[in-house]
Write a structure and sequence with these properties.
The complex is a heterodimer of chains A (168) and B (186). By secondary structure, chain A is α+β, with helices and mostly antiparallel strands. Helices cover 18% and strands 34% of the residues of chain A. Chain B is 28% helix and 40% strand. In chain B, helix 1 runs antiparallel to helix 2. The chains are: A alpha+beta (168), B alpha+beta (186). Chains A and B meet through strand 4 and helix 2 of A and strand 9 of B.
Amino acid sequence: MATQTILRYPHPALKKVCRPVETVDASIHNLIEDLLDTMHAGQGSVGVAAPQIGVILRVCVVDVSKSRNGKDNNHGLLRMINPVITARSGAAIMREGCMSVPDYTGDIERATEITICFDEPDGTSRQITATGFEAVAIQHEMDHLDGLLFLDRIMSVKTGLFRRKSYS
Amino acid sequence: MTQNFEVLHYAVSVVGKDRPGIVAGITEALFRLGCNIADSSCTMLAGEFAMILIISHPKPFNKTRLQDELKPVCEELGMSMVVRTLHADEAIRKESEGEICLISVYGADQPGIVYRVTRELAQLGINITDLATKLIGTDEDPVYVMMLEANVPDGETPEKVEKLLENLKKELNVEIGVRIVTPVSL
């Protein structure tokens, strides 16, 4: 499989509510491989959702284990098919940026602890409780499955920028 | 043949007594001129409304024309205006690889809090990107609050910055906290 281009807003795929995966077949395995390759190719990326590579299905991958914020508290690499948050608690604000909305960041409030149910690529169901940065990353990626960008959740007019080199 | 020219950017600042319609009035003039608003920040302090806008124009365009067009609008709105030309090298944001920190300072109001803290930061090579202050509390016990965001140079840590501000904290008897707010890339 291959690294795919991360779509950027205003690509319409990013504002679509994704369809659930009906059958976990080879196409889904290939999709997950693409998501992983794309995540690993993105510098410092901790997650990619299917619509970010143009696939309108409820699939995303998350791995915060190599990130500064998540390295001490994580479930390693998560391949999530049809993820559903079944419980959430706590709230914390973190300044988020997204590969699909480059050059912009904003303060977003997320639950600090979430329980998620999802299917694994082998078809088994799994439930985990994630906290801290991993919980933030999962909520961010799962928002993509509902056509939501962090721009839809910004809590303050005060926003920031990063990695933008020029106005031109 | 395509004509090559340098796209100039202008920094426009407008300040005046707040009322409805200031942003609409200024941006209407810019729209009619065919200007693009790149970045902007506008806020109200007490009864004053202030706008800072970075604008550009897709065609060669001079500062006098911009000022001439904005002047009557500003006069009508009772605003003062300053326009500065930014040349190509000025319209580049210098990025830091270091952490972005939020530095909070608060304590009993006294002269010099902003000056003393920012002087210290400047000496450490810390660049302030955003700063807001507010006088709160009561007439008997006024409290000064300053929140600023700054780029900490590579190799410096928030803990180190906090430690370097320790003496000032004691001297001014204020609370100073340094927290990382560097964005997470998702």
